[in-house]
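As agreed, record minuted below.
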Amino acid sequence: MDTNKIDHISASQIHTWLYCQRSYHFKYNLKLPQASSCFMSRGKVFHERIAKALQEKKEPKLPKRWLANYKAIAERLNFSDDLLIEEKVETKIDGYNVLGYIDVIDYKRALIVDWKFGRKISKYNVQGYLYKRLVKEIYNIDCDVAFCFIPSLSINPMYPADYADGESIFNSFIKKPQDSNFKFYPSSRKCQMCGYYMYCMNPEVISALEGPKDI
């Protein structure tokens, strides 16, 4: 993987690479469109509604149960009145251009918040690490990071070990060459949930898109 050919690095790129290097190859090297899922579309809509509600100091339009969870989480977070919402942050980290879109930066409380709408609580250490670094570089604020899982009413703060893990993942992404070879299991849920499933089901299409191999 030649990161010098990439305009920027983002947490989304690294998450894709961790999930499946072949999927990363399709998305960022071949720049192929992927099938969207209802989960992706729903998450985008709800992020936009929460951002608008915070800007207007209103309740967001969310499903009834999720709204109750959101209100409970917001009460626990106790936001100040000095918020940056849906903030685009971009600068150099270790010589690489890194880009992020942060849901909420509470400037007074030195807190970064990222909303999550998946029902499964997962780790997002590299995302938290990069967001913390970006905000420190741009605003000179040493922020804590919390991932808020609205469906499960959970606030997951990051700890020093999480940031260290995120840094390790970031360094691995930069240094480790990409291997576009992959194992494809048509019946596995992981492959079926991937937006590039149909490409993998048709290897002749992949060969045509990639072109002849160098000898």
About this structure: The beta strands are 83-93, 96-106, 111-116, 144-149, 154-157.
